[in-house]
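Amino Acid Chain and Its Fold in Token Form
===========================================
What this section holds: a protein sequence and its matching fold, both as plain text.
Structure line: whole-number tokens from a learned vocabulary of local backbone shapes, matched to residues.
Purpose: to set a sequence beside its fold so the mapping can be learned.
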Amino acid sequence: MKTDHKNPTTNPNSMIKTRFAVRFLHDMKKLNKKTPPSPYRRRFHTIRAAACASMSSAVGPRRAWSRAILRKIRARTLHDYIINKSRNHRLITRRKSVGLLRGNPRDQEEVGFRQEDDLRGLVPGGEGMGFCRLLSETVHYIKCLRAQVQVMTNILDHYNST
């Protein structure tokens, strides 16, 4: 498929942004109707779960990270999954701040394996794939997260200006 960056209907990134925005706004509308105001932390995680669900359904089952999130949604554990991811990220950051060993090639190799395992833990569904595919999924996941942030920022700007 030839992509034309000026025509948003043929640019895959724009199509994902559009599908995400429509699904996310629909989910937020349902969320506001269904649930009474909750404590900030719980509401934050609910909105984040809606954003993850909207993005993974906008991308569809073509990507491993998207399939992993959709599987978690079906199992009704996405909320717990996101909380655990943030805890794991804090542990990884803490482990990295302890310091890396230098000089010994074995230590360098061990650090490389640790970094690969850290990446597998950050990308949904990254646990069981080869390294090259993991890098490809990571690139796509980051692009989608950037698109998600852009859409959510635009939504926020729109509601703040009205």
Q: What stands out?
A: Residues 1-5, 97-101 have pLDDT under 50 and may be disordered. Residues 39 and 120 are 32 Å apart (CA to CA). Residues 131-161 form the longest helix (31 residues).
